[in-house]
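Please fill in the sequence for the structure shown.

STRUCTURE ENCODING:
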C-alpha cells in the first residue's frame, strides 16, 4: 500500500516497542505479559502504508533504553526518545543522537516533580537544546504549566504528549490546553494528537483537535497511534486509530500539513 498525500499519516509519532525479558522499573504502572518487538510494529506500519515512526520511551522500563536504541540503529525509518538520568553526559547524548535518538522524555505521571532548577536538570535541558534535540513531556494537566516554565526558559524544543491531557470538564478553559497553546505560540513547542482513543467520547479529542488547529495551526501538531495501547489491549486497533485521526482532523489539507510537519521535525 503506497502512502499518498493526505490519505495516510506520513509519520506515526508515538508508539512503544519492547522485547522479551526486559526489566520493568519498580514504579511501572503496568507490566504487560507479552512483548511488542520492533519487527511486529514495522509489519503493522507496512500493512497500513505508513513510512516512518517515532518510538517513545516507555516509563515501564525506566532508563533501560537498550532495546529501543538497537532498533533505531537497525531501522533508518525510525527515530526515538529515551528516558535518561539528568546527569547524562554530552558524549552519551551525542552517541544516542547518532543512533537515531531525537529527544529525552519526561514521564512524570503519578510522581513527584524533580527539581528542574537543579544543576543536573538545567544542564540536561541546555545540552538537549544545543544538540537540536527536544524534551518530550507527559504529565497530568494540572502540572503541565509548571513543567513547561523551565523548559521554555532554556529554549529547548518541547513536544507535549496526548493533547496535553486537557480536562474535558473545563473544556477550552483548561489550564493545560491554554498552557500548551501558549507554548506553541512561543515557537518552542508542538503537541501530539495521540492517546485520544482512551476517551470514550470521541467528540472530546475532536473538539480539542479543532481548537488546536484554530489557535496554533497544523504545523504545530503531530499524530501518534500510541500502539500497542498498553492498558487497553484488545479494545482498539491500529486501523481504528487512523480512522480517529481522520475524524479529529477531517480536512485533508490540514492532515497533510501535520504529516509534513512531523516528517520535518523528526527526520528533516
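FILLED IN BY: designer on duty
SEQUENCE:
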Amino acid at each position: 500500500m503506497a502512502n499518498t498525500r493526505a490519505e495516510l499519516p506520513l509519520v506515526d509519532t508515538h508508539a512503544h516497542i519492547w522485547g522479551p525479558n526486559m526489566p520493568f522499573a519498580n514504579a511501572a504502572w503496568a507490566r504487560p505479559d507479552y512483548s511488542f518487538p520492533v519487527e511486529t510494529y514495522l509489519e503493522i506500519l507496512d500493512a497500513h502504508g505508513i513510512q516512518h515512526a517515532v518510538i517513545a520511551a516507555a516509563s515501564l522500563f525506566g532508563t533501560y533504553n537498550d532495546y529501543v536504541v538497537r532498533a533505531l540503529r537497525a531501522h533508518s525509518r525510525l527515530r526515538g526518545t529515551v528516558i535518561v538520568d539528568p546527569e547524562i553526559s554530552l558524549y552519551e547524548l551525542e552517541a544516542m543522537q547518532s543512533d537515531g535518538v531525537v529527544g529525552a522524555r519526561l514521564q512524570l505521571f503519578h510522581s513527584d516533580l524533580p527539581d528542574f532548577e537543579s544543576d543536573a536538570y538545567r544542564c540536561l535541558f541546555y545540552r538537549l537544546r544545543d544538540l537540536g534535540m527536544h524534551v518530550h513531556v507527559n504529565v497530568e494537566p494540572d502540572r503541565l504549566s509548571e513543567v513547561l516554565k523551565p523548559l521554555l526558559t532554556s529554549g529547548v524544543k518541547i513536544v507535549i504528549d496526548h493533547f496535553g491531557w486537557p480536562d474535558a470538564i473545563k473544556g477550552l478553559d483548561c489550564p493545560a490546553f491554554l498552557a500548551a497553546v501558549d507554548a506553541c505560540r512561543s515557537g518552542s513547542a508542538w503537541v501530539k494528537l495521540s492517546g485520544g482513543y482512551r476517551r470514550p467520547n470521541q467528540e472530546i479529542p475532536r473538539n480539542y483537535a479543532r481548537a488546536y488547529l484554530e489557535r496554533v495551526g497544523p504545523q504545530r501538531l503531530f499524530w501518534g497511534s500510541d500502539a500497542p495501547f498498553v492498558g487497553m489491549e484488545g479494545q482498539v486497533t491500529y486501523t481504528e486509530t487512523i480512522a480517529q485521526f481522520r475524524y479529529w482532523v477531517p480536512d485533508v489539507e490540514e492532515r497533510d500539513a501535520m504529516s509534513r510537519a512531523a516528517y520535518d521535525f523528526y527526520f528533516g
